[in-house]
């Protein structure tokens, strides 16, 4: 084993003393039957030893000594679900498949680590979503697009690195119920295009095997122009016979060399990437061609819906980027093959702090759908500022689309319940890198943990998840734990207060996306405008404006269309509003902007002070790393406060009622 220079995150298995002294337990039932069961048993041994000083004996010698853990196949338990039940000295982990057993083992260890005794365990659980996926945006030169925690641990200098770190990564992912992963960036360029060739197959296979030990399916992110770049064809037109044949042959080769691979993840016709539009074809033409090629191997094509015009003229008020996904994909609802899944970002723009839920989710009624969120904090503080993202995801999951009478939330759609389909799921752009602590900011690991837990069980609350993560990661007194949980739960609101107001989004430093630049994107080609003048701000997306609000089912369309019923936190997303408009609080819009920005910057300071107050409850290296980031967060919040307030004061010429310092 190479020297370990990475942390154990939430799987440190430190002693939980209350569990009592050393004892021996016997393992009964399944043992080493498959690669996944082997991993499960190894994890069980390791965890029991670390957490409770329990020796797990697996050679059958003391199988009748009384106390034992039995692994049982129970066909009636849903796919990848588990039951962990203890009674009369026996602990049973039951599941219908290997992944279920593995998740049952991790559940048992989680309960122990949380301080529960073995004797009182009784949990049943099964996954809400069939596919629970991590999408890496790792490039083969070792850099990570939108990565804030070091470089890739998969790639370096256009080569694949296979290391023990990947084994630990797979363990972490399995421990939170992740069953799918894509390791290369959706922007597939250079060497990454050749991941589906002999140049890389053997190394890809090694990584795939590590994942397979933990029940995780590898997906490959492919370059739509591969027929040209690898195959030497002159076109990648999805309806061209030569292209169709090329992908059929290539897929046969891929599935033979990498048996068990899940399929392809594709970014096409997006931000300069090649795609079917070049040939006058539709997104459905592109996705279906690939789907047919992988069909014989039960492969899946996950096709991203992040397609929009990124060369817009800012003078053009008619084109609305928010409309693009729906406009490009809805018309083919029902025409996508059943092994195509459309992967849809949570909002119609791009992972902003506040956006409405994409109207494609549930708008599509006869198409498989997957929700894509971003735990990499591109627009939410670069893993410098604290932002616990799970409350935001809960809001998205709980959103009623009205696509059905009942069973119409986003959670219902991505679980496959709303449409009775099995190809559905939940994916996140991951926030890891090769930093010692994996996520740059130690506290950002809560988003990694939380996403997996939520994808497995969308009914868990943000608070439950936060508390689990805190307790598994640190062993602190109850008071410190409460403080940290509260910090996490407050963090998103605080960040929202000091950044762009009321759903307008953007206003960030172009390309880099950290820190304020109110007009940074205002006169650009990206379709991201706030249109502020001296009277008003916001984009009219109602029936009198771009018509975006009409992409929702009636009830939501009506709610968003009217500024009086539009949720206030999205007011400027849907409406153009004068600075003097009275909000529900009785404040004017401009006063709201001033107040939230002054408050937000203050609250950022309070977060830092709370962190200091629990200094002694966390390891000193963790304290230092996080404290350093809080210093930067305070500076960032001050900068946001001053730039936003000054900008709107200068535009509106309306002073702050409280006479605070504005520049
Ligand atoms: C991988 C945004 C990001 C890009 C990213 C893109 C996408 O535009 O800034 O870095 O590219 O989204 O989701 O494809």
Write the CATH fold name of the largest domain. Answer: TIM Barrel
Proportion of residues in extended strands: 5-15%
Rounded to the nearest angstrom, the distance between the terminal CA atoms is 57 Å
Mass-distribution shape? globular
Fill in the keyword field for this structure:
TIM Barrel; alpha/beta; 17 helices; single chain; 663 residues; Chitobiase, domain 2
3D structure, described in words:
With 663 residues, this protein is α/β, with parallel strands linked by helices. The chain has an eight-stranded parallel beta barrel. It has a six-stranded mixed β-sheet with strand order 2-1-3-5-4-6, with helices on one face. It has a two-stranded antiparallel sheet with strand order 8-9. Helix 1 links the parallel strand 1 and strand 2. The relative contact order is 0.09. 4-O-methyl-alpha-D-glucopyranuronic acid (GCV) binds next to loops.
What is this structure, in a nutshell?
This protein is α/β, with parallel strands linked by helices.
């Amino acid at each position: 084993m190479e020297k370990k220079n990475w942390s154990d995150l939430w799987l440190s298995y430190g002693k939980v003393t209350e569990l009592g002294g050393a004892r021996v337990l016997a393992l009964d039932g399944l043992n080493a039957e498959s690669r996944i069961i082997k991993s499960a048993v190894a994890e069980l041994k390791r965890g029991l030893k670390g957490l409770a000083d329990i020796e797990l004996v697996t050679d059958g010698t003391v199988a009748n000594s009384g106390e034992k853990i039995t692994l049982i196949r129970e066909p009636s338990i849903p796919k990848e679900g588990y039951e962990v039940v203890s009674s009369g000295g026996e602990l049973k982990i039951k599941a219908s498949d290997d992944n279920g057993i593995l998740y049952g083992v991790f559940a048992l260890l989680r309960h122990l680590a949380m301080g529960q005794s073995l004797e009182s365990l009784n949990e049943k659980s099964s996954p809400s979503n069939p596919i629970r996926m991590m999408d890496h945006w790792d490039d083969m030169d070792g850099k990570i697009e939108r990565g804030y925690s070091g470089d890739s641990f998969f790639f370096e200098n256009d080569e694949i690195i296979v290391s023990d770190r990947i084994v630990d990564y797979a363990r972490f992912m399995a421990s939170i119920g992740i069953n799918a992963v894509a390791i290369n960036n959706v922007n597939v360029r250079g060497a990454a295009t050749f991941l589906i060739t002999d140049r890389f197959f053997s190394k890809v296979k090694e990584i795939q095997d590590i994942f397979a030990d933990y029940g995780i399916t590898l997906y490959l992110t492919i370059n739509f122009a591969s027929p040209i770049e690898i195959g030497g064809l002159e076109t990648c037109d999805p309806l061209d016979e030569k292209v169709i044949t090329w992908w059929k042959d290539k897929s046969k080769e891929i599935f033979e060399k990498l048996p068990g691979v899940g399929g392809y993840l594709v970014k096409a016709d997006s931000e300069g990437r090649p795609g079917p539009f070049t040939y006058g074809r539709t997104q459905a033409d592109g996705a279906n061609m690939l789907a047919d090629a992988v069909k014989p191997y039960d492969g899946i094509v996950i096709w991203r819906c992040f397609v929009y015009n990124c060369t817009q003229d800012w003078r053009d008020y008619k084109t609305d980027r928010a409309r693009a996904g729906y406009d490009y994909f809805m018309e083919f609802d029902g025409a996508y093959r059943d092994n195509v899944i459309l992967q849809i970002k949570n909002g119609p723009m791009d992972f902003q702090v506040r956006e409405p839920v994409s109207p494609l989710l549930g708008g599509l009624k006869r198409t498989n759908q997957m929700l894509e969120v971003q735990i990499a904090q591109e627009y939410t503080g670069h893993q410098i500022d604290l932002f616990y993202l799970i409350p935001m995801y809960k809001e998205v999951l709980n959103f009623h689309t009205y696509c059905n009478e009942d069973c119409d939330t986003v959670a219902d759609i991505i679980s496959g319940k709303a449409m009775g389909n099995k190809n559905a799921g939940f994916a996140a752009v991951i926030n890891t890198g090769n930093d010692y602590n994996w996520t740059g900011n130690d506290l950002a690991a809560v988003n990694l943990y939380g996403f997996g837990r939520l994808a497995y069980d969308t009914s868990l609350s943000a608070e439950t998840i936060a508390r689990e993560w805190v307790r598994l990661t640190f062993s602190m007194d109850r008071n410190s734990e409460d403080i940290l949980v509260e910090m996490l739960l407050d963090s998103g609101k605080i960040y929202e207060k000091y950044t762009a107001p009321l759903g307008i989004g953007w206003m960030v430093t172009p390309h880099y996306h950290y820190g304020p630049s109110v007009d940074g994107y205002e006169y650009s080609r990206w379709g991201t405008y706030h249109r502020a003048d001296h009277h008003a701000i916001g984009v009219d997306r109602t029936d009198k404006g771009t018509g975006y609000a009409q992409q929702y089912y009636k009830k939501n369309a009506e709610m968003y269309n009217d500024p009086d019923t539009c949720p206030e936190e999205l007011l400027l997303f849907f409406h153009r509003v004068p600075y003097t408009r009275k909000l529900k609080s009785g404040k004017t819009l401009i006063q709201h902007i001033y107040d939230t920005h002054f408050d937000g910057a203050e609250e950022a300071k309070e977060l830092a002070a709370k962190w200091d107050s629990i200094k002694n409850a966390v390891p000193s290296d963790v304290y230092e790393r996080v404290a350093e980031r809080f210093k930067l967060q305070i500076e960032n919040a001050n900068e946001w406060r001053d730039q936003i307030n000054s900008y709107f004061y200068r535009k509106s010429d309306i002073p702050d009622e409280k006479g605070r310092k504005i520049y």
